[in-house]
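Q&A log
Question type: sequence-to-structure
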Amino acid sequence: MVLERKSLLKSLRYQEQVVMGHRQFSAPFTYQDGLVNEARLIHIFKGQSSLICAGKTLSLKAGDTLLMKADNFINRWLDSPQGNTVEFVGVRLTQSLIQSIYENSLPERFVGTHSNLKNSECGSAAVISNHKLLTGYFTLLKQYITQPDDMTDSLIALKVQELIELIIQADSSSQVTRLLRELFIPNQPKLQQVVQAHLYSPLKVDEMAFLCHMSTSTFNRKFKQVYGTSANKYLVLRRLEKAEQQINTTNKRITDIALECGFEELSYFSRAFKQHFNITPTELRKAHSD
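Response status: OK
Response body:
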């Protein structure tokens, strides 16, 4: 993961390849992560975030262990009641690393290729929460990373193998085990899948394009072919329509409604609402309550 702000970073290398790292930085912070021919295992010690995949959004918190396969992700690290410090340890898995570590005895879980589930069903990420053995593993790994001179390639290889066995044992839902079979097989998400999954999230058009593995111009062109209008117009209209329905049928605060419908800036929401409905959200709420 490349973070475009000042952060504390320590790492371990296996055969000159960065495999493990310990990172600390301050939230809030959003960044995009494009994993090509590699996967990541991450354990969160501090912080909370929303990990946005093509078909879903995962809420992450301290104690969670996350597996991400080869795909595009947007990670939004958030302020939390516990503070704004983010701390995690990550392990980078590549095909060359797995083949080198297991040599000619590649486990069945990495063999074969596709599982019985389609990529869209299996997803691109899975979370194991508050597993004592995994927490203990990553706590010790953090100590190893702070003393890189004492870590040999043989010891790093053993630690990667240990981690893979641990997550399989901890995986009660079998989601992680299925992902292991497709770690390096890139998803090909459908444009409609991404749009419908994140219709009322604050994602911008260029972020949706990123999740679809498209340039913004290609995404806009294909979007118009499917929906008959521009992506920005469609998203704003659908979000405004939901906001109007919420104002008319609930007692939620207008600020909360705006956020739930994908508007992060209340001033922009109010202007767009007035422009489309010829009435402000506050005026509509007052008229409805009279």
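Response note: Strands lie at 8-14, 17-26, 29-34, 38-46, 48-52, 57-60, 64-68, 72-78, 85-94, 125-129.
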